[in-house]
Design goal:
Blueprint: H1 2-16, H2 18-36, H3 42-49, H4 55-60, H5 66-71, H6 79-94, H7 98-105, H8 110-118, H9 137-148, H10 152-159, H11 166-173, H12 176-187, E1 193-196, E2 212-220, E3 223-238, E4 245-253, E5 264-273, E6 280-284, E7 294-305, H13 319-326, H14 328-356, E8 358-359, E9 362-363, H15 368-396, H16 402-427, H17 429-432, H18 441-452, H19 457-473, H20 477-484, H21 489-520, H22 534-558, H23 566-591, H24 599-622, H25 627-637, H26 649-659, H27 664-668, H28 683-695, H29 697-709, H30 718-727, H31 733-750
Parallel strand pairs: 1-4, 2-4
Antiparallel strand pairs: 2-3, 3-7, 4-5, 6-7, 8-9
Helix pairs in contact: 1-2, 2-21, 3-13, 6-9, 9-10, 9-14, 14-15, 14-16, 14-28, 15-16, 15-23, 15-24, 15-26, 16-18, 16-19, 19-23, 20-21, 21-22, 22-23, 22-24, 22-25, 23-24, 24-26, 28-31, 30-31
Length: 758
């Protein structure tokens, strides 16, 4: 007992007496921290400082405030936005023949281009005072997604002017003169923009762009003018072949110091008319056969005045931060919208197809092998819609959640790939035979485009999500890094001492929380709700605290090497990502009014998210470079082993059976691909067959019963079966006609196009 008292006194003196603490703990810790501090490049530093911390910050701290999540506004459409969807978007859909666009025209038809321009499809984000629509991120996402259910090429054409590019950059950073000149023309389609960032030597590492702009004096419009001589070579630029105004990112240099003392000003963005002398618009690329405009642009010694820099000369060298802050549109809105559209289409058509397509005398949706894949499609679509809503909620709250949008970009495009692959497996020949009736083929072909652009997915996962999240979201590390960078060492140590005490308490709390929750199965953890989703909040608390303590130990042991341990960094980013996706799922369930028929989807999704998060933790611990620390982490996080399992077969079967019939739950995750008059794209055809066969389900049961009892032979062809049943008065003439009509629609739905020649 006396030894315990002495230990308590020693700890109290060590931490409570400032002079002792400073000498024994703070100064050695400060020296160690500066030694292991990861070096940051200028572009990394700008990326770290750009954007805001939002909900992901709560998930990183070990104790999420779930009431904050629930308080976020449910995304809704304004009357103007809803009217645009009901009218202009629906009209545009009737003008889209994607097979013709991709295989014959290799372009949108002229009348669709004109309609997009005239009706403001390219002005969704431009303020109303400049003639734009000024729609919310949620509306922007919904519009792009609805178009994408019918044509990826048309959707990409609409999304690019409303994503990273001149419109957004001008709105946020442009001078008043630039806004007055360009935004009204962009709003009505008089000007068509593109933005040139990537090139042969700069893709995901956009900060390394080799394109150069040199400050100099040359004659411009008859006068000697201070400006920039530009040389660039860009590729993969969407809309470049048809653009009238070019947004350009380049490295700006001032070797003669005409603007100040700095010779290398950094990445800068300028706006250049494509008819300007020296601007070259090259030939088109062929992005996986899709018909949206994509190509090259180049220029050599092209002179522009300084006031063509977006934001004016004062924004010289600030282009990288501008780009990082505005990437949220592409990463958080546009690409996730394409992925969500894939989910809606695959769920609507594959549930319908699985009900009407028969093999071995029964619908293929009754086979467990099909149900396994179909359950993934349905659950992933629920997840995609949930993540789309939560992510746009953050953007519409006027925050720039750079980590969240990186999570959305990576995981949602990967889920989009997953749903398409499963749908192709189930629909088989229907999916691989291209033609006007095929609603999967072009989306399947185009999916790698989303995986590749706005930062390649592999690098987004391994470098960005945890790399930025660990520092940005941690309640102490970024402040500690700032303290370590202070010039006044005395002030730096004092500041570090204040932070260190809080950091130690934070780490201790998370370690104890992780361990206690592991021992009790999270039963003692708090939850903001009761009922069927209560356990998920508790388990997420556990995983959040586990991620927090593992992050601290990783930074302590690996220091600057952590960012080079990309596989471990990626796995820990996966933990954060799964927590974010799970949060979106629970928020979606709450926003829907806790609908009972959503629960099969919620249970499947949440079980999968927690399973993947725990697996990522377990894999990171197993590969931890310090074996001693790995053992400690295993004791704290999984003292009784990892019991987070994948969804059960029973959960998959229950989910599928609930969706193989018309229902409100099915409508909630397929509404983006609603039918319209004259729809010949195949979606309406298979849905019509599904509804017709479901309406006749009691008649099919009557026929099966007659076959089982021996009144009718088994394995008769469908039409013969109907005729025999009519002859034997098992069905009435009206029922016979209903079955004939349902079967006619069934055959139309499962058939594919054929051609005289290709």
């Amino acid at each position: 007992m006396s030894i315990l008292i002495l230990l308590i006194i020693a700890v109290a003196v060590l931490f409570g007496v400032r002079s002792v603490r400073m000498q024994v703990i703070t100064r050695p810790a400060f020296a160690f921290f500066k030694k292991v501090l990861p070096p940051l490049s200028s572009t990394e530093k700008e990326a770290m400082e750009a954007g805001d911390v939002w909900w992901e910050g709560e998930l990183f701290r070990g104790k999420p405030d779930w009431n904050k999540l629930h308080s976020y506004t449910k995304p809704t459409l304004t009357p103007d936005e809803q009217s645009f969807l009901d009218n202009q978007v629906q009209t545009a859909l009737t003008m889209i023949d994607d097979f013709d666009i991709v295989h014959n025209r290799k372009d949108l038809p002229p009348e669709l281009w004109e309609y997009f321009k005239k009706e403001g499809f390219f002005a969704l984000i431009i303020p109303k005072k400049y003639g734009g629509r000024e729609f919310s991120a949620y509306a922007n996402s919904t519009i792009v997604a609805k178009i994408a259910t019918r044509s990826v090429s048309a959707a990409v054409t609409v999304m690019v002017p409303n994503s990273l590019g001149p419109g957004e950059l001008l709105t946020h950073y442009g001078t008043q003169e630039q806004k007055d000149r360009w935004l009204p023309a962009l709003a009505v389609g008089k000007e068509l923009p593109c933005f040139a960032l990537t090139g042969p030597e700069a893709g995901s590492d956009a900060g390394a762009i080799p394109d150069i702009g040199v400050v100099c004096r040359q004659e411009f419009e008859g006068e000697e003018t201070l400006g920039i001589s530009l040389t660039w070579d860009k590729r993969y630029i969407t809309l470049a072949p048809v653009a009238t105004v070019l947004g350009l990112a380049f490295q700006m240099r001032d070797p003669d110091k005409l603007l100040g003392d700095k010779k290398n000003l950094g990445i800068t963005c300028a706006l250049i008319p494509t008819n300007h002398t020296g601007v070259e618009i090259g030939r088109r690329h062929n992005p996986l056969m899709m018909a949206f405009m994509n190509g090259t642009t180049s220029g050599k010694d092209v002179f522009i005045p300084l006031d063509w820099i977006i934001g004016g000369p004062q924004y010289a060298g600030k282009g990288w931060r501008m780009l990082v802050e505005c990437l949220s549109a592409g990463r958080g809105i546009s690409l996730p919208a394409l992925a969500t559209a894939s989910g809606h289409v695959t769920t609507k058509t594959t549930t319908a197809y699985s009900y009407v397509r028969q093999q071995f005398g029964m619908p293929i949706g009754n086979f467990e092998g099909v149900q396994e894949a179909l359950a993934r499609i349905i659950a992933n679509t629920y997840q995609l819609e949930a993540a789309r809503r939560l992510t746009t909620t953050g953007i519409d709250a006027n925050v720039k959640p750079s980590v969240v949008t990186a999570i959305a970009k990576y995981h949602m495009t990967e889920l989009g790939r997953d749903v398409l692959e499963d749908a192709m497996d189930i629909q088989s020949g229907k999916g691989i035979q291209l033609g006007p009736k095929n609603y999967l083929g072009h989306a399947f072909m185009a999916n790698p485009i989303s995986i590749t652009v706005e930062g390649a997915n592999i690098l987004t996962r391994s470098l960005m999500i945890f790399g930025q999240g660990a520092t940005r979201c941690h309640p102490y590390v970024l402040a500690e890094m700032e303290a370590a960078g202070m010039e006044d060492e005395t002030a730096a140590v004092d500041r570090f001492d204040q932070l260190l005490l809080g950091h130690i308490g934070y780490a201790t709390r998370n370690a104890l929380s992780s361990f206690a929750n592991a021992l009790t199965g999270s039963r003692l953890s708090s939850s903001p709700v009761s009922g069927p989703t209560q356990k998920y909040y508790r388990d997420m608390n556990r995983i959040s605290s586990s991620l927090a303590i593992m992050t601290d130990l990783s930074m302590l042991i690996m220091g600057g090497d952590l960012k080079r341990k990309e596989m471990i960094s990626a796995r820990m980013g996966d933990v954060l990502s799964q927590l974010y996706l799970a949060s979106a799922t629970l928020k979606f369930y709450e926003d829907n009014g806790r609908q009972h028929d959503d629960l099969p989807s919620v249970h499947y999704v949440m079980t999968e998210r927690l399973h993947l998060a725990a697996k990522a933790l377990e894999d990171a611990i197993r590969n931890f470079p310090s074996k001693i620390a790995g053992v400690l982490l295993k004791v704290l996080i999984f003292p009784l082993g990892n019991h987070f399992t994948a969804p059960s077969d029973k959960a998959a079967v229950e989910l599928v059976k609930a969706m193989l019939k018309p229902s409100a739950a099915r409508d909630r995750i397929t509404f983006l691909c609603g039918e319209f008059e004259g729809d010949t794209g195949g979606i309406a055809e298979v849905e019509d067959a599904f509804l017709a066969k479901y309406a006749a389900r009691d008649l099919y049961k009557k026929l099966k019963k007659a076959q089982r009892s021996g009144h009718i032979k088994s394995k008769l062809p469908m039409l013969e079966l109907f005729e025999v049943a009519l002859e034997k008065d098992i069905i009435t003439d009206a029922e016979y006609q209903q079955l004939l009509e349902a079967d006619k629609k069934r055959l139309a739905a499962i058939n594919v196009n054929d051609f005289d020649k290709l």
